[in-house]
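Example 3.
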Amino acid sequence: MDIILGIRVQDATIIATSKAATRGISILKDTDDKTRELNAHNLIAYTGEAGDTVQFAEYVQANIQLYSMRENDIELSPLATASFVRNQLATSIRSRKPYQVNCLIAGYDTKKDQPTLNWIDYLGTQVELPYGAHGYAGFYTTSLLDKHYRKDMVVDDGLKLLKLCLKELETRMPIDFKGVYVKVVDKDGIRSVELD
Amino acid sequence: MSDPFSINGGSAVAMVGKDCIAIASDLRLGNQSLGVSNNFEKIFGFGDKCFLGLTGLATDVLTLKETFRFKTNLYKLREERSIEPETLANLVSSTLYERRFGPYFVSPIVAGLGHKDNKPFICGFDSIGCIDFAKDFIVSGTASDQLYGMCESLYEPDLEPEQLFETISQALLNAVDRDALSGWGAVVYIVTKDKVVKRVLKTRQD
Amino acid sequence: MAGLNFENYQRNSYLSTKGFATPRATSTGTTIVGCKFPGGVVIAADTRATSGPIVADKNCEKLHRLAPKIWCAGAGTAADTEMVTQLIASNLELHALSQNREPRVITALTMLKQHLFKYQGHLGAYLICAGVDPTGAHLLSVQAHGSTDIGKYQSLGSGSLAAMAVLETNFREDLTKEEAIKLCADAIEAGIWNDLGSGSNVDVCVMEVGKDAELYRNYLTPNVRSQKARSYKFAPGTTAILRESVRDILDVEETVVSFDQMEVDTEA
């Protein structure tokens, strides 16, 4: 029931993840951040089996940073980052105990000056999208996004659209997901945003 | 949640014409009933006049696309020429059969013209690499049953490139309209000896 | 074959525990037969390949060459009959080259059965193996588990019952070559008409002592598609296009330029 949502606008990619950490019928925490910074311009947001998620996110985070240390401070592009993560999951699904992790990767390609949003599931299915979500959130929000998304939106428009989605989720989701953390990835890097 | 071939959905078809071939696919990528992307291409080029269509489980489509990119690049380095469609077909077959007891969940199709003689070639495979050499058309994907019907009635031999385009497009379009898991856009490649034309079709969006 | 890769086996077992179905391989739900005659042997097959209830290929080839004068008809999982046959064919050629002799049918059969036994029936290949070698004409068969049979006439595949009925009634020890071909073709036809898994055409291969093997591809074509009542061509422009991109393929032409005299700088 975790919510992760991503919207790519003209100059940035926006990610929203629910704050609630649930186990069974209990909410264990209302300040859970389901994202990790992979490098200066790449952010991974994840949902899935507890334990697998953080383990996997931090594993790819470490390896992506190790790559940059070894390779003369070259920062992996969003496409390279997403391909790496996909490859890890596609390999994992063939192993004895696969990672059950679905993720979104928000990135900003500093060479091409382009924001990207990559949707990757636990099977290793990867696709570049203008907006996307994992889990039940997708069923409630994709129709809204289809209707209101415009190619020429900027961050503020994106945040407005995001608020629209969150309002829908708050009314329709069966449990309280304790609000969301919102992060923006643009040419200056990754930053948190407070929604009013 | 039962058949890995129909989690993501998608269909492809190839046809032989007069000194040309056409290969087409839809553009949908879904997660069960939820459409995720309307821009997921399933046809990949290897060399100028050689194409591979991959339908089935999307993660395996991506993995195999990369595998064959790797293998055909090495082939090109070793042989100093692009791979022929017949050779690609055998490469696909042996790559799939290598995983006889743990297959990739895909149904590939190959279409192309010979690099020297421009001889049209198409073929299809099952998920463990059995080649289906056909002289007329090859279908694959979640709308394959519908495509068999469409192709069997619309196809005729020796069509000129433009006529072949209409035939393959209408066969694909009308087949995917009867499949909930396929559609959401379509793309067609028409390959003749001196050019490759790629056309993105206007389709239903439901 | 460097060996099979079992990597995905684990993944797929895992997937099937989660309720995923296993893939449907193309099968040659076939009729294949073979019969001997004094001085030679004939094998024959239908040409239908199925995937579940769908006819995947209306004119596939089920007669495989193991060696120039040893041929083999395959039923069962199409990929397995094809691959096992290719593997044995190349090993047989290497064997023939190293021994400097023509390969024997019994050698091919032994290689096939040892390979299939190793895989405990998981390779679904059912083969009728026939040919001529320095010891004469032979007709043998192998089952997926590795067991083998020898006989004067044999049939295998889903249409084997229909075919065997024909073989049993019409087989004689003193068939001529033409009669043997006819008998095999009739037996396959019995499968084509009476077995759902078999259909389309009849392929025949004749191997005679002291002669080259002869393959009659589509020896009988009793299921030719009738002329379509009308053409279903669409008017150009029927299909709406959103975008078009064209890639021109440059054809490099090479011409050899010959010089009458080599240009040499004589000044220096």
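The helical segments of chain A are 52-70, 78-92, 136-148, 155-172. DSSP finds four helices and twelve strands in chain A.
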